[in-house]
Amino acid sequence: MERERKKEKQRTGGTQPYLTGLLSIYQVYYPNLVTLPLRSTNIIFFKSYDRNWSSILRKVKESNAEMLLNQSTERESSRKKKADLSARAPASKRRRRELIPQISASHSAVGDRTSATEKVSLSLDVARVPMIQISSFMEMVEKIDRIEFPSEICVALHDPLLQHIIVHSGDRVIASRFSYWIQHTLVEELLNRSGINKEAEKLLQHLICFMDFLQEGIPVVDTFLQIYLDTWNGADYRPYIMRLIGKLRMKPFTVLKELILEPLRKLFFTSSVYFKCQVILTLTDLTQNYVAVELFRYKDSLMQQEMNSVTSDTLEFTSPECLSLFHEAVEKFNPMHTLQELVKWVMSIANVGLIAENDHTLLTYHVIGYIELLCTLNQKYDVPFLFLPSDLLLSRIILANSAFGCSKLCSILCKYKTSFQALRSLSDQSVPCTDCIGLGQVPQFNSIVVDVCNCFSRSKLYDTKLGLGVSSVRQLVTDVPDVDLAHSNGAFSIYRHQAFTGFARSFWKQSHPQGVKFDPRQISQSQSQKEAYLEYLKNEGLTGVVQFLTMFLRKHSTAN
Fold first, then answer.
1. Is residue 474 part of a domain?
2. Rounded Cα gap, residues 415 and 258, in angstroms
3. I want to staple 438 with a disulfide (CB 3.0 to 4.6 A). Which of 39, 79, 140, 386 is the partner?
4. How many Å apart are CA 84 and CA 363, to the nearest integer?
């Protein structure tokens, strides 16, 4: 309104300098509102002159000009120094940069690019808050629905607060942006470059931490591993690659074996025992991840996919217990078959690895750790699955030189008994017997228990009159000529076993006068000596053997 009055006064009263000056300012910022022709020459619109104010303005202008000149000089000198240093440095150092940038806001002001929704939000005083302004977890919780994502979403790899926001939002666009960036970066830094660089190591560290936080694998990382493992030398980025393999998503076993397990198998049999231990540990993590996370995630994803295909609805169904940020179409297959075949594959390479490394103690320890995981899967994760290792693999551990390995395996066999009982009760209550994988191995388990009891306590290791099937231990020596099995039955008892002989001799020295000749048969023939020896083994840390014999042997049974 004021603008119209000024224009009307300009028309009626003639040209006035101060009115022309005000209208000129309007024409600069709002040219569509001022249609009067105005002179473009520079004239003085306000003729009142203040010398004191003019001198102050002149001093400020001179000081600002001097400051700008100094800054430009400094920038030019620093630029020349950097150019000289970059010219002297090698090309690899000039290209060095941070793969994960620092966090920044996506825009600094609302301009012409602001969408209609943002303009409405701003007009209603619900302006979005840039992520760079969030400094604490409580502040994030208070403003979580108004936080603006940064322009480069990859900064979430080293920002825990932003990771919480991404998971809370569940935005598929954000997930797609991150997937595209991580796939491109992994290919550029690991596939297209040889050797190891520190920036790529930091990237893998942050990526693994991010996947631990999400508790799920990322599909593009799985795709990258399928390509990378085919040419991997087993040394570059080994700890990080092993961790990523342990977080793979569930796939059909044929795909998993061809793209992941076969490259690992080739490296497994051509590398040192320490690499073999790392592979077994990685496969242990992969099996646990399949049972604890991926089995339920696959079922939920398949259910969501089938519901979307039936209803043809744009709304996506997600399970509140197993929410996946990185959604992908899944192939329909039997996940329990994948799990079962994976366990068989691991057991096979573990057995061959022990043969190749002459039952190395460290490798035996990792194999026992994998068997211990198998015996607790159904109770720990409520899965109708139980797998018993082969008789040959268990026999190698029982007959090995490690007393602690034998003791650990005995405690695992006790856990198997509890797990079989839990699996049987589960099949009687809710799960059909056909869906409980492992119940068919109960006779095999009973045979193994009898064999171990005969080996450690009854001195009937090679007895063929039991009628419980061919013993796995007996099968190793049945075809060996000139072996007197009758005199060798007690060779692997807890008194004469090569792994327990040192403990038996030490117990003999403590319980008998000096000078008495060591005779393990006297320990086995005396009930009081047997109980004292078992107590001695328990005090030495071999509690698994004592627990096994207490659980599976009757009190009146005696050793020969």
1. no
2. 34
3. 386
4. 55
Mean pLDDT across the chain, nearest whole number? 78
- pLDDT average, residue stretch 426-446: 71
Higher pLDDT, residue 316 or 508: 508
pLDDT of residue 351: 93
Instruction: Tell me, yes or no, whether 276 lies in a domain.
Output: no
Residue 91 confidence (pLDDT) above 50:
no
Q: CA–CA separation, 306 vs 386, rounded Å? A: 29
**Domain match, 42 and 65 both:** no
How deeply is 265 buried, as exposed, middle or buried, from its count of CB atoms within 10 A (0-12, 13-18, 19+)? middle
Are 541 and 513 in a shared domain? yes
Regarding whether 542 and 493 lie in a shared domain, the answer is yes
Ordered alpha helix ranges (H), 328-376: 335-356, 361-375
Work out the widest C-alpha separation in the chain, in whole angstroms: 136
For 287-308, give one letter per residue: b (16+ CB within 10 A) or e: bbbbbebbbbbbebbbebbeee
Pairing of strands 147-148, 129-130: parallel
pLDDT in tens, 269-302: 999 999 999 999 999 999 999 999 888 888 888 8
CA neighbor of 352 nearest in space, from 262, 245, 276, 404: 276
What residues contact residue 227 under an 8 Å CB cut-off, 6+ apart?
A: 191
Is 7 part of a structural domain of the chain? yes
**Strands annotated E in 52-182:** 129-130, 147-148
How far is residue 314's CA from residue 316's CA, in Å, rounded to a whole number? 6
pLDDT tens digits, residue range 13-40?
A: 566 676 777 777 777 767 667 666 666 5
Identify whether residues 17 and 66 lie together within a single domain.
Answer: no
Question: Are 82 and 29 in a shared domain?
Answer: no
pLDDT for 92-105, tens place per residue? 444 445 677 666 55
* Paired residues of 129 in beta bridges: 147
Give the model's pLDDT for residue 463: 58
Amino acid identity, position 134: I
pLDDT in tens, 243-268: 999 999 999 999 999 999 999 999 99
- Helix (H) and strand (E) counts for the chain? 27, 2
Contacts of 135-142 with C-beta under 8 Å, sequence gap 24+, read: 137/161, 137/164, 140/164, 140/165
Residues 7 and 41 in one domain: yes
Token code pair at residue 266:
């080739």
Q: What is the torsional sign of CA 196, 198, 199, 202?
A: positive
| 8 Å CB contact between 318 and 301 | no
pTM given for the model? 0.73
Q: Domain range for residue 160? A: 127-169
Q: How many structural domains compose the chain?
A: 4
Residues 138 and 84 in one domain: no
The confidence score (pLDDT) of residue 322 equals: 44
Of 370, 337, 328, 327, the C-alpha closest to 254 is 337
Q: Indicate the residue among 169, 197, 230 that finishes a domain.
A: 169
Residue 482 lies in a domain: no
